[in-house]
Amino acid sequence: MIEVIPAVLSQNYEDMKNKIALVRGIVPVVQIDLCDGVFVKNKTWPFTTGGADDMNFHRIMNEEEGMPFWEDIEFELDLMVADAVENFDIYTKLGPKRVVFHVEAVGNLNEFKNFLEGMDVYIRDSIQMGIAINVDTEITEQVLSLINHVDFVQCMGIEKIGFQGQDFDERVLEQIKKLKEKYPDLIISVDGGVNLDTAQELVDAGVNRLVAGNAILKSVDIRETISEFENLG
Q1: Contact predicate 190/176, CB 8 Å
Q2: What CA–CA distance (Å, rounded) separates 91 from 75?
Q3: CA–CA gap between residue 158 and residue 181 (Å, rounded)
Q4: Whether the predicted model's global pTM rises above the 0.85 cut
Q5: pLDDT tens across 78-125, in order?
Q6: 30 has which bridge partners?
């Protein structure tokens, strides 16, 4: 069965909480899109509300509370930020099950590989690490050298990342096929442009996880939509 992950992109904590509530009890994992306005032009919580000055973010950092509905939902953090490596310890305090680093944002890829290799064993055992690749990023040997150090790869299905509702970019299909040819057991997610019109092509290309925002959260029947996605495989 295909794993379906609703993507939540929110300007503030309350909006994030309300969107997570829509899929609570339906899926086990939700992706939280974190956009800093630097790596991508869009900004999301907590960057829109002052970061450390945001009351909810501050309480989470101080372990006085957790992310919304953390008892029922696990979180995948999509770090569309310029400081993912430098402030990784801060992001782990949000309690993620998975973290996605964008290869275009992490700087020198050899240094990033060293960062992954030198990660604390406890963190490495408790959090799954993934890398995201933009649709127009060439999959070089340097990029491929990271795959043995991560748990999954997220291919971006749109050109303008950090925004929902963008048009699907078919170039991602070739990326997925190339990765699956070289690494048949690699878990591949696709994020961006995922809807019931594009999902079957993605699954046929080899995708294991479908990450979707509007197609799920704005659907008339969220539970049925998720079920349709899950059964495509």
Answers
A1: yes
A2: 11
A3: 22
A4: yes
A5: 999 999 999 999 999 999 999 999 999 999 999 999 999 999 999 999
A6: 75
